Amino acid sequence: MLPQLPKLKHLDSGNFFLIAGPCAIESKEMAFEIAEKVSAICNRLEIPYVFKGSYRKANRSRLDSFTGIGDEKALEILAGVGEHFDLPVTTDIHTDEEAALAANYVDLLQIPAFLCRQTKLLVAAANTGKAVSIKKGQFMSPQSMQFARDKVVESGNDRVMLIERGNTFGYQDLVIDYRGIPVMKSFGSPVILDCTHSLQQPNQPSGVTGGKPGLIATVAKAGIAVGADGLFIETHPNPAVAKSDGANMLPLDKLEPMLERLIRIRKAIVAD
């Protein structure tokens, strides 16, 4: 069962839900273009949709990496997307001070994987009253995510989702253990598969993270087949020119046919 989110549609469709958008907010025009196209696709396919965009990129490999267009400007764009397209919106936060700031603009606060054990951050997010999604750390077992979830729930907020995003495999690769999805679902919260970041190739000699976006459809199919409640996909009209994580993002024109195939898999699983 999804936590209640304002403006979330198609909850009776039986479909998985989708969190999708660019890695980072680059401009109003880019954010609105993606939101318009993805929301139209999701309305046609009756997929509950949450728009995602990072208002600030705090975890970067190099000092000269793009970190954002300015906090207030990016947050206002996110709020504008939600208002204009009648969508719930989400962004990631990095410190407990950011929780209250971002909560003024978005409906769902995302805790990054590297910060999923930060107690003050989780409690601050819980205390905003907004729904909270927690990415499983690349260094964490699925079982240990129960304690991250409990920090939010025991702070008085049961609107929690967990996100699987793979585990560190060597220095420059990640691997998804799909057994973790039913494990985390047993805690009583929806579980989302991050199809983008689970295919990252971090720690490259260039200082720019790589990825395998050609496999997004593959891991998404597997995630739906093992019972993921939702999918997290970063997408961009032209990933080659994206200012952040372009090597990981799905080209926007590939999203609709992929979702159509995933719906067929979902229907087969539910009917089984």
Mind sketching the topology for me?
Elements: E1 17-21, H1 28-45, E2 49-52, H2 71-85, E3 89-92, H3 96-103, E4 108-111, H4 119-127, E5 131-135, H5 145-153, E6 160-164, E7 167-168, E8 174-175, H6 180-185, E9 191-194, E10 200-201, E11 210-211, H7 216-225, E12 230-236, E13 250-251, H8 255-271
Parallel strand pairs: 1-2, 1-12, 2-3, 3-4, 4-5, 5-6, 6-9, 9-12, 12-13
Antiparallel strand pairs: 7-8, 10-11
Protein described:
The protein contains eight helices and 13 strands. By secondary structure, the protein is of the alpha/beta class. The chain has an eight-stranded parallel beta barrel, surrounded by six helices. The longest helix is centred in the first third of the chain and has 18 residues, at 28-45. It is globular and about 50 Å long.
Keywords:
alpha/beta, 18% strand, eight-stranded parallel barrel, 272 residues, TIM Barrel
Q: What is the chain-wise order of helices and strands?
A: EHEHEHEHEHEEEHEEEHEEH
Please give the order of strands in the largest beta sheet.
1-2-3-4-5-6-9-12
> Looking at this structure, what is the CATH superfamily?
Aldolase class I
Task: Kindly estimate the percentage of residues that lie in beta strands according to DSSP.
Answer: 15-25%
Brief account:
With 272 residues, this protein is of the alpha/beta class.
